[in-house]
Amino acid sequence: MPITLRDVREHELDSVMALNNAAGPAILPMDTARARFFWDHAEYFRVAEQDGHITGFLAAFSQDAPHDSPNFLWFRERYERFLYIDRIVIARPRRGGGRGRAFYADVQSFAEVRWPLLCCEVFLQSGNDPALLFHGGFGFREVGQQVMAGTGIRAAMLMKELCSHAWVAQTYGGRLPDQPWLRARELSGRRPALATGT
């Protein structure tokens, strides 16, 4: 059956949290408050659905989010405008089926009309070479490293410049065409991000 990527629905937050917490040590745990924070503040928060089941999700935040992630804050201290991929989780039995690639193609399409940079990190631990290769294949490059306070985990900070953003910003300013594929999530009473100057 086909895989559908769509915005998460509020009643699915428990399913997202369970999927996150079953992912293993490479993904930071999520509680109810964190899931609610993602719902309220993530500019991009989509799930992969297949046969009526959620099989993965990706959440990303703009530079304006009130996020406390040390890796997010690392980027905010250095870059003015970006979309930060906080996490991508694919259910263990569904890994290797192309969902990660589908999410990254989708989040890039979402981001490039709104932000000049797409950012994320990969934990530098044994066995994570495939994750670094995956991101390299999508054009990400390392722009630094940091050790996360209190964890001892070293992360490679990755960034991709979105080459279409400058053209979109110059052509459309802050007003994108009213098309379904360009619509963004409504976030807690504030307007979602639009294309603006670099």
Automatic annotation (TrEMBL):
InterPro entries, per the entry: Acyl_CoA_acyltransferase, GNAT_dom, UCP028520
Membrane spanning stretches: none
Domain of life of the native organism: Bacteria
The keyword Nuclease is annotated on this UniProt entry: no
Coiled-coil residue spans: none
One of the Pfam families matching this protein, by short name: Acetyltransf_1
Keywords: Transferase
Residue ranges occupied by any N-acetyltransferase domain in the UniProt entry: 3-164
GO terms for MF: acyltransferase activity, transferring groups other than amino-acyl groups
Protein name: GNAT family N-acetyltransferase
